[in-house]
Amino acid sequence: MIIRPYEPGDTDALYDICLRTGDNGDDATGQFADPRLLGEIFVGPYLRYEPELAFVIDDGAPAGYVLGAPAGYVLGARDTVEFERVCEREWWPPLREKYPPGSFPAGTRDAHYVRLLHESRTVDPAVVAEYPAHLHIDLLPRAQGHGMGRALMKRLLAALREAGAPGVHLGVGAANTRAIAFYERMGFRTLRQSPGGRTMGRPTTRNLSAPGP
């Protein structure tokens, strides 16, 4: 397995990975009527506006997969506040037209994310003051347990550092205990916590081998 920059031909595969890790790291394929909805929210805008901060795991040709099939990704935004402004101006309006309220039956996961799509996104000023960048990372099971998550994180942290971002944050669901443990091993600390999840952050300037704060 190798880490390489995102290429435009990876887009559909990354949308699929987002769906297949969309249930707190487990496969959410059977939980959505529209298989692209999660990707439109959590993958598409990063590929459009900050493709230089998108990296994928390329595992060649394992059994049952085509050559060079992505097995995971990390996506980043250098300046969360500016990223949100651009998305609010350019990315969300067409999606809100495509997915108006009531597009899916109440109580479904599709309906939940459509509701989120129509809400204004405002990041906590106290978080972005110290950790202005943010990221999303997802790995399929076949890429887990080989150190690739750490390699992805290292690649993105270096890119964010070069882009001038002193710190990065992320959000994780409370039920995703595997991800929380992974982020803690990567030096992230909890900044905000609620019954549904937590916001975690770390400086981009600290070496990954250094202990967390």
TrEMBL record:
UniProt feature, compositional bias: Polar residues: 202-213
Domain N-acetyltransferase: 1-205
Keyword Transferase: yes
Protein name: GNAT family N-acetyltransferase
Record GO terms (molecular function): acyltransferase activity, transferring groups other than amino-acyl groups
Region (Disordered): 192-213
Alphabetical keyword list: Transferase
Signal peptide coordinates: none
